[in-house]
Amino acid sequence: MKSTLLNMTAVLFGITLVASAGVGVVNMITVEPIAAAKAAATTAALSEVLPPFDETATEQMTIDELPITVYTATKSGEVAGYAVESMTKQGFNGVVRLMVGFTPEGTIYNVNVLEQAETPGLGTKMAEEGNPLLRSVKGQNPADKKLVDGRLAVTKDGGDVDALTAATISSRAYIDAINRAWSAYRSAVSGEAPADAASGASKSEWKAEEGAAATDTDSTSTGADAQEGGQDE
User: Fold this and answer.
1) DSSP-H helix ranges across the chain
2) For burial by CB atoms within 10 Å, which of 111, 121, 211, 214 has the most?
3) Separation of alpha carbons 224 and 120, rounded Å
4) What SS3 state is found at 202?
């Protein structure tokens, strides 16, 4: 066949059509398993942060312009607890997402880290069982803690939450997400609109400190571990 602009265009169009159809078929095949896996992960997280329950009702909120999901868990028709899928964008490497469980009275039942991309061996310890952050809040009502401007804060910021060693920014992010969860819990219980909940140092202070950490790294050491280590005194 003689090569012409018309038949080359037709061939290219045919290849594009086949490729698009293939992508569509793959998407159809995978969309349900992906949704099922996500639902299973959410159910597992709820089970870890809540007392025993029969079912949950879901409510969507926006706090500090971030999407928050509240799961009201019931057992035999009575409220068993509240789980809040909370998040922050103030992690050392971006988004940190938590599932925070509360008893009906407001005590933090447990915390599950759903997503984080912090420095291995430092900020990633927030996901370890029994880490200092979790020990500082699990089994306690935030209202009974030492608050700074009405919010939980790490000791470096005047609060009484123990931070991860050499990972202050990651620790602040974890507590920021918990403060947002606490705000959502109070809104779910009271029926009032949730209040903004940004905690700890101001965002400008966080960024300034993060910049200082990077500068310290350039002048004294190399690697992500050293960079995160520069956050502390």
Assistant:
1) 5-49, 132-137, 168-190, 203-220, 224-229
2) 111
3) 8
4) coil
Angstrom distances, CA of residue 8 to CA of 2, 12, 15, 20, 22: 10, 6, 11, 18, 21
Q: Please give the backbone phi and psi of residue 226, each rounded to the nearest 5 degrees, phi first.
A: -65, -35
For the stretch 140-157, pLDDT in tens is: 999 999 999 999 999 999
Alpha-carbon gap, residue 216 to 46, rounded angstroms: 40
Torsion of CA 126, 129, 135, 140, to 10 degrees: 100
H or E element, residue 83:
strand 78-91
Helix (H, G, I), strand (E, B) or coil at 124: helix
Q: Are 46 and 36 in contact (CB under 8 A)?
A: no
The encoded tokens of residue 34 equal 């992906």
Q: Which candidate, 118, 134, 112, places its Cα nearest to that of 43?
A: 112
Residue with tokens 């903004």: 196
State how far the Cα of 170 lies from the Cα of 164, in Å rounded to an integer: 8
The length of the chain, given as a count of residues:
233
Backbone angles phi, psi at 86, to 5 degrees: -115, 170
The pTM for the full model equals: 0.75
Q: How far apart are CA 118 and CA 147, in angstroms?
A: 26
